[in-house]
Amino acid sequence: MGDNVLTPYEAEAYCEALIAFDIKSIGSAKWLQQHEYLEKLNVQAHVCIQNDTDEFVSESLISFEKLPILVHELLSIEVWREKVYPELVKLDFVSKSSMAAYMVFYHEGTVLTLLEAVLYNKEAVEGLGDSVIDLVDYCHRRMVWLNSTMVNQVEEREFDDPASDKKKDARAQLEMSGTELLEDQIKDLPLETAVKAVAVVRYLTDHVTVLPLSCLTRMLNVHDFPSMLVPLITDAPWTRTRNGKQEKYYDAGWHEVDPSERLQVTKTEAQVWLAVYNLVQEPECRRKYEFTTFNKNELLKLRGRFNDVLVDQLPILTALRRSLEELAVMDAPPPEASVVVEQLPEIREQLLKINAKKWGAIAEFQKARVFCADDATIQAQAARLAQTYDLNVLESMMPDDPKCAKCGEPAAMRCSRCQNEWYCRRQCQVEHWKSHKKMCNLICEADAAQKK
What we know:
The structure is a single chain. By secondary structure, the protein is mainly α. 64% of the residues lie in helices and 4% in strands. The protein has 24 helices and 5 strands. The strands form 2 sheets. A 3-stranded antiparallel β-sheet has the order 1-2-3. The chain has a two-stranded antiparallel ribbon with strand order 4-5. A hairpin with a 7-residue loop joins strand 4 and strand 5. The longest helix is centred in the first third of the chain and has 26 residues.
């Protein structure tokens, strides 16, 4: 185990082939091929990190100057989701299969995961160039969503019973329209992409010294990231209570938390704390951040969130705790006076400008040419996806024995439908079904189409 899915030469070829697609081409055969490249690069990047080997994926993306292409991909999907998808829904564009449409939504998470894997490297942050402004603005929009829309959704959403999901598969899903089925499949993706965007913010703040000055000013004084991060701790959107039991969102799903582990910090919670630490403690940030009564009071709300368990898990927060105590009893120093030439995001604005008033025409084109219900097209797409997500290849890259998707214990049983997820016992499989259902259905749908 521990074999690579790509050789360094293959990774170089894939990176060199990456191009910026226009919105009209999203979902096309060439676009799906690039999705395949990015998915394999993504998996290989994480394998390199996990096995502590040469990070040739990151190096290739930097040397071929392809990181701005990843940001372009991210923003293209965002604009498509906001502008083209509503027009496609009006045209009832999904009939036989929602597979191709789902992959477009899933692509956003793939790009974010790849960025998350490479941006902990300072050279990668530098390699973003001017596109980092667009990336910062994208992350800002995702955090705004977390602080508004998601908080309300967590309060309103009902807990789904796995048993009722099985009944739904047998009855209700057969009666759903293609668009309704797609909406059901993608309903949890916005939260997952927002969580990944928070991780990207953390890695950007790790390297504020190499960010363009206008970018740092934008993070601190235009978007006020320090204040935006506070509600993600004080009113965390990835924590909820259902039937008297606390649940936390991690590993792409909601999980019940044992009372003895409620103070255990998840990866996402740690990313937020570390981002706040960087933005408050980094000397360059302290010189540039403009304190107001509002943002000072916001940051001081964090004082009530410190406890010994938190500091034991993240000892670095001791310095942040001390800084907040000092801030509470004295005035913050004024920001360092300087003249900054403001850079504005260009990629998203260019996409909106080029395609203005064309959204309906793009939707009609994509319904006819991209998301058509032609059996041959569906089978070709299924064959490509089956090759991309080849389970034997993915399993060969696992550095350790399979782990249960629910509890993390060593596992010996697989999902009987898709053969993709591992479980240690039947109870874990039943409890994890809500999180696994969408991908399980997608894999089975692709396999069935390939066999026709």
